[in-house]
Amino acid sequence: MGAMTFPSASQRQGPGDSGPAHVLRVAGPLVEIVRTSGVAMHDMVLLGEERLPGEVVAIRGDVVTVQAYEYTGGLAPGHPARPRGGPLAVRLGPGLLGGVFDGLLRPLARAGDMLRAGVRGTEPDGRRLRFTPGVAEGKRVAAGDVLGDVAAAVPLRVLVPPGCSGVVGWVAPAGDHGEDAVVAVVDGHEVSMARSRPVRRPGPVEGRLAGGRPLHTGQRAVDLLFPVARGGTVAVPGGFGTGKTMLLQQIAKWCDVDVIVYVGCGERGNEMADVIEELSALTDPRTGGRLAERTVTIANTSNMPMMAREASVHTGTTVAEYFRDMGLDVVVIADSTSRWAEALREFASRMGELPAEEGYPARLASELAAFYERAAEVRTLGGATGSVTVIGAVSPPGGDRTEPVTAHTERFVRCLWSLDRDLAYARHYPAVSWADSFSRDAAAVAVAHARAGDPRWAERRERVAGLLAEADRLADLVELVGVTALPPRERISVLAGRLLREGVIQQNALSPSDAYSTPEKTAALVEAVLTVIDRCFARVDSGVRADAVEAVDFTPLLRAREDAGPGESAPVEAARDTMLERLGATR
Amino acid sequence: MSAPGEIEYTRVRDLHGPLMVVEGVNGVGWDEFATIALDSGERRHGLVLEVDRDLAVVQVLEDTAGMDPGGTRVAFSGTPLRIPVGTGWLGRVCNGRGEPADGGPPVLGSVDAPVGGAPINPVRREPPTEAVLTGVGAIDVLTTLVRGQKLPVFSAAGLPHLQLAVQVAAQATCGGEAFAVVFAGMGLTHADAAFVRDGLAERSAARELVLLLNTADDPVIERLLTPRLALTVAEHLAFDGGRHVLVVMTDMTAYSEALREVSAARGEIPARRAYPGYLYSDLASLYERCGRIRDRPGSVTVLPVLTMPAGDITHPVPDLTGYITEGQIVLSAEVHTRGTYPPVDPLGSLSRLMRKGAGEGRTRDDHPPVAAQLIAALARAREVRELADLIGRPALSAVDHRYLDLEDAFLRRFLAQGADENRPLDEALDRAWEVLLTLPPSQLGMIPAALLDAHRAPGDDHPGAEGTPP
Lengths: 587, 470
Description:
The complex is a heterodimer.
Chain A (H helix, E strand, L loop, with lengths): L20 E7 L2 E5 L8 E5 L4 E9 L2 E6 L11 E8 L1 E4 L7 E2 L26 E6 L6 E2 L4 E5 L5 E4 L6 E6 L3 E4 L3 E5 L2 E4 L2 E4 L8 E2 L5 E2 L4 H6 L2 E2 L3 E5 L6 H11 L4 E7 L3 H13 L13 E6 L5 H19 L4 E7 L1 H15 L12 H10 L2 E4 L5 E10 L9 H9 L2 E2 L4 H5 L12 E2 L2 H10 L5 H25 L6 H18 L13 H23 L4 H5 L4 H9 L6 H15 L3
Parallel strand pairs in A: 8-23, 21-26, 21-27, 22-23, 22-24, 24-26
Antiparallel strand pairs in A: 1-2, 1-6, 2-5, 3-4, 3-6, 4-5, 7-17, 9-11, 9-14, 10-13, 11-12, 13-15, 15-16, 18-25, 19-20, 25-26, 27-28
Helix pairs in contact in A: 4-5, 6-7, 10-11, 10-12, 11-12, 11-14, 12-15, 14-15
Chain B lengths: L7 E2 L2 E5 L2 E5 L8 E7 L4 E10 L2 E6 L11 E9 L1 E4 L6 E4 L15 E4 L16 E2 L4 H6 L2 E2 L6 E3 L5 H11 L7 E10 L1 H10 L1 H5 L3 E7 L10 H15 L3 E7 L1 H14 L13 H9 L11 E9 L8 H9 L2 E4 L2 H5 L12 E2 L2 H4 L9 H25 L6 H18 L9 H12 L12 H7 L15
Parallel strand pairs in B: 9-15, 13-17, 13-18, 14-15, 14-16, 16-17
Antiparallel strand pairs in B: 1-7, 2-3, 3-6, 4-5, 4-7, 5-6, 8-10, 11-12, 18-19
């Protein structure tokens, strides 16, 4: 558009006058306003009489560009715009646990059936929480030190906020308090359970740790072949129908961390409703309460305002850092980062930024890197160990893995769990491809397993990966010449691939005993199947015909994963012994 | 703030493609609705795409052909477009802008609603669990449509998707509960439009149908409005009127092309195949309006129909649709060539919500295992057929032959159905059994033994009869 002079645009505000500015231009979520003094990049602005929240993304001369987080229908040039004098921030408190929020962390529980644009409060319900002081008055404390405990599904803490230190002047006695009630005074600063944090700036920590503590997801394909360490990063690329959401939901339910932050970013509403319902119905194996009580859900479905989708992944990470600072392990699950990248592209295009690949802005790669880089295992300011692990789904258009979001994401993550369409269509869950996935944490995780009393972990992983690769190589050959044309040992390799796929890697997400697998059960299953495979090789080596071995009924072994409960090893060993007996009878 | 008819702006600066730029405006808001009067007396309509100081960029729904900047007056409504909603729409036939096409008076209502809608609060959504029965066996048994779901039909040029859409719209029911269909046609030929009107005449006469038809020679940009009108009317009938509403939208490829046209005219940076980068979000703003809301009766179920250009499922329109919707019904040119209607590809089709909407207490207790077993058997049959093509039929094993029989029985006895045949679910499931029992019981491992025993013919028990087609 040509730069037309709007009559009142010349009535510039005097210095120091922070009265309302006004709107100059509106194009969907892109709003330009007149610059007033004291407006900084990433400051929050309230637009129009409806006070639609927005964030400053550019300042050029007298014009400030704002990205609006709500539908801007009806917003017109001349309408007021009120800079809030601070960055986009969210309110963090113990009451987040169990809640469902939108991309700006506003609670959805009290927002009505339909989400209309406008201001909505960010205050959680008026719940009172049990506070127990953990520090004596008169003690000298520094940022990150514990002031007291808060009772919740996971033990929470009230910490001395960053940038604050000194003598504890007063601390509340044990009792129930609202989130905003002052529970301590440090060096004259009032500290309550809840505090505000800007969403785009990583929270301060003492330092990053080398990591290596494995994160058990309960999904064997991942825990066995492509493990992730606490504080690691994972991308899960997969076309539609490959079971991304299913896998992420299973991980949310079963992985062994303290707090789960589930960010539904531009995905289906019905799916979100399903996640919310399932989490509140599931019993938490760790606490006996409901799983939802240690979950924070951020729901910004595909038809909710697009730019709030862009903010939602940062909001999610900020929430995760809040719990991490208390010395907890947190997982952020973002489904899907592609929708977040699309929001970036949409806004960049409206800003007239020069496009790089497929219309995405040139900063796509650095934005992705910055997002994943907030994951880490850290020493907190208070000296505790906490971690934020980030698992992001990627939805490549047309399943094309060379598209920019997938291609760049692969470069920045520690683990890639690539979902395979053929496996998914064969109803093989989880459809994690063993050929196209990787884990850069595997060596560190192997050391941790060895230290925890399982020195054979790395060896097992290597064997399974090798056998699967060999079976894949032979599968191409079998398609051409038929299995009977192979030499005996290679026929057993084909069989080994099948036993590993169906007996170990595959999982039944709907079965109570197989939906997740403890490290012990996974180890027992792998040992059992490997022992049976070794015996199969031994039989053909000793002259037994390959088809006699192939004809053995392996059902007990393949059923062992469902017959044994999540933490049981004994039925697995029984199945192995049955198989060894049957193989012994082959001639 | 301008009120309807209050201020008319006459300074039209630019006209290009579907866009009009008006200067000297004051207080016009983004996404406002505009009425455009031409000197010829003609009235057109528009939506504000951008406001910049005193300029307004307006997308003209009827296109700018024949417009003269000197003879154009524009009035802005002061709000985004709102339309009257209510039962007055039932039984009516309108054009793609909601104006009567049946010779009747304009549709009025005591309430109005913004066509853009508002997102349903995810916390207030009720997960869908009950079926909409379409009377089409292949859909009801294999890809059960669930109330509140969005399930698209992926088709290709030359396939009878419109016929299927009309059949579903004419036959669908929700177990005797109040039901209505909103049918939005975009870019239909006149012959197709007439076919739709005829096929749905009965439902229309019963005041269970709202028909919005944008034909191929109607303004292209109007198509951007048609599905929004349909969904706005449907939401009110469902969530305020307590009806289960099925919204059929065809053809979404024509809709997406209109979106691309506007995007190109605005000089926006294109993404895949020159579709705008916001195609996903735009489609989601339509499809996501389906659902159920806690503590309210009624539901909105969306059945978008789209043609895949050159049959390519990775084309942006089917690809992005697939990412948003909960499954897909794929039509197959191969089945169509064999002369079977409806030509549903059972292996490519999927209803993700079927797990919750089918089975005991929902449809019939044997439904989920029968559907799963049938799909598994058809997958095996396809492999056998490929093998037979390589090595010849005589080399196949006895069991393999039975799989070929099964595929044949599937097409003849299960899939094939008259275009006006309303097949009850019980009959469709019984036919599925009939097809399955072409196989020996040893091949039906996914069906619980008790169910299998109950459905096998009495004479089937002795070994010699194993696999005899019933």
